[in-house]
């Protein structure tokens, strides 16, 4: 019945049901869930609306999916349902340079957006390290961050308006200029649980006239962390301030020969943009602070090629660790910048205790850590150890005044952990918001909230 109805609405070519196809959509970069009942590839908001109406009638869950690069199980079906893949809704729809904005379909890959508009002198700022693969719809779903979000803000700061299909299959639009509640901001980061994004107007920024990229080598991860606090504490906001430890630097160098010093215990990758004089003054000021905190090297990228190579190494770090272990598990926590040394020490201690190799590559300027726990999933001891270390990392981040996710979202992975940062009443209040948008829990059910949390607790 379901397959016939979907085929009737979208055409046979847009409905996938073979076991091989379903298997491809049963996981994301975090986990494997169950097989969906069907995968659909709509080409318009009207088709999305038709699918939602069928799902509602037949009580099938709906899971919106971009590229499946999510690291928390957000796009993974956990009780069958229909996966809505936006692979065919990937167009740049309208370019409005006068108003510095562009309208895109949700399946457009992040990097392709900036590449396609580069000749206009503008760019789209949020740049998750996954930007070669992840989509604008997925970035909106998770409120993605990225190295340059230190200066420019995360996805929510760049979404101007949304076209949404709601749980009844009705299409509506929101905009940041609307009076009353800011529904646009509410929908960004809602992980496909409040509505399905079918197009978005996003902000464009002018490509800065000058950009400098430097690397600083440090004798310890503590001295690099202290330099990060001192740079931001001095009122300097570089466009990016990223850290990699020795494990990551060696893996990156072996994979890409990007130009990082392999003898450093930690490396900062620093970028500053603006007028040439501003970049020159950032160079002098940041170099002074880095040296005062023990930097043994401060080196500028001398050409666009060198700059690109350093960034390619940083953004390819997760792939490079495949040279060390067959599997990795990325944690994502945030702490106040001044607590970075304590947080990194806790990661190191837990990893040593459980004999797991860890590599740290992260958005240091934002205090957003990503310990990559390197393991072999065929070894049950290592799997258990990685899960245990992940829990220790979450608990320590909360103790240090931080939180359990900086940018990857909650999905399935961290729904239990939400109780570490919110009281039951707070979670129930959020569940009430969800109920307003999706009272029948059709949209990406069983994500974000711990089991057993519902709006009813607010009403009693
Ligand atoms: C190597 C690597 C590096 C990464 N680096 C970063 C980083 O620097 N910063 C960062 O923030 N993340 C990073 N991530 C995580 C991931 O890439 C982001 O979460 C990204 O935003 C997911 O995009 P996607 O298109 O793959 O979405 P998916 O994984 O397919 O979906 C993500 C969520 O969005 C929802 N969704 C998708 N499309 C829609 C839609 N049209 N309407 C409503 N909801 C929708 C899904 O239901 C799901 O909940 C990284 C991942 C990897 C593997």
Automatic annotation (TrEMBL):
Cofactor needs: FAD
Record-linked InterPro entries: FAD-bd_oxidored_4_C, FAD-bd_PCMH, FAD-bd_PCMH-like_sf, FAD-bd_PCMH_sub1, FAD-bd_PCMH_sub2, FAD-linked_Oxase-like_C, FAD-linked_OxidoTrans_Type4, Oxid_FAD_bind_N
Keywords, ordered alphabetically: FAD, Flavoprotein, Oxidoreductase
Keyword ATP-binding: no
Domain FAD-binding PCMH-type: from-to ranges: 32-207
GO molecular function, one term: FAD binding
KW Oxidoreductase (keyword) present: yes
Protein family per UniProt: Belongs to the FAD-binding oxidoreductase/transferase type 4 family.
Name the UniProt record assigns to this protein: Glycolate oxidase subunit glcD
Organism whose genome encodes this protein: mine drainage metagenome
């Amino acid at each position: 019945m379901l397959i016939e109805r979907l085929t009737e609405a979208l055409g046979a070519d847009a409905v996938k049901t073979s076991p091989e196809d379903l298997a491809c959509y049963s996981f994301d970069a975090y986990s494997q869930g169950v097989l969906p009942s069907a995968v659909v590839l709509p080409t318009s908001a009207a088709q999305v609306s038709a699918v939602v109406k069928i799902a509602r009638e037949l009580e099938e869950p709906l899971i919106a999916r971009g590229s499946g690069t999510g690291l928390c199980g957000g796009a993974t079906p956990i009780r069958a349902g229909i996966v809505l893949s936006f692979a065919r809704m990937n167009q740049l729809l309208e370019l409005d340079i006068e108003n510095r904005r562009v309208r895109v379909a949700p399946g457009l890959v992040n990097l392709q957006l900036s590449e396609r508009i580069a000749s206009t002198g503008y760019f789209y700022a949020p740049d998750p390290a996954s930007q070669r693969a992840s989509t604008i719809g997925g970035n909106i779903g998770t409120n993605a961050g990225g190295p340059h979000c230190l200066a420019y803000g995360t996805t929510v700061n760049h979404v101007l308006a949304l076209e949404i299909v709601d749980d009844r299959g009705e299409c509506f639009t929101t905009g940041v200029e609307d009076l009353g509640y800011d529904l646009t901001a509410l929908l960004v980061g809602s992980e496909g649980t409040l509505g399905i994004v079918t197009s978005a107007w996003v902000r464009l920024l002018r490509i800065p006239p000058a950009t400098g990229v430097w690397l600083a080598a440090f004798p310890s991860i503590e001295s690099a962390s202290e330099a990060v606090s001192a740079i931001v504490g001095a009122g300097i906001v570089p466009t990016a301030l990223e850290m990699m430890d020795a494990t990551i630097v060696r893996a990156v160098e072996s994979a890409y020969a990007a130009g990082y010093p392999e003898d450093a215990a930690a490396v900062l990758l620093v970028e500053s943009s603006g007028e040439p004089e501003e970049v020159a003054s950032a160079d002098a000021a940041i170099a002074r602070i880095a040296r005062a905190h023990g930097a043994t090297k401060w080196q500028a990228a001398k050409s666009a090629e060198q700059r690109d190579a350093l960034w390619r190494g940083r953004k390819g770090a997760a792939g490079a660790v495949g040279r060390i272990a067959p599997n990795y598990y990325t944690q994502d926590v945030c702490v106040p910048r001044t607590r970075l040394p304590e947080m990194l020490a806790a990661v190191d201690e837990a990893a040593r205790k459980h004999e797991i190799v860890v590599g740290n590559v992260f958005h240091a300027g934002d205090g957003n850590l990503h310990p990559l726990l390197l393991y072999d999933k065929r070894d049950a001891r290592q799997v258990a150890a990685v899960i245990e270390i992940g829990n220790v990392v979450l608990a320590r981040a909360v103790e240090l005044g931080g939180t359990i996710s900086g940018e990857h979202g909650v999905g399935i992975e961290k729904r239990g952990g939400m109780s570490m940062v919110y009281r039951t009443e707070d979670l129930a209040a959020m569940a009430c918001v969800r109920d307003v948008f999706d009272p029948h829990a059709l949209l990406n059910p069983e994500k974000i909230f711990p089991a057993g949390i519902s709006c009813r607790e607010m009403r009693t």
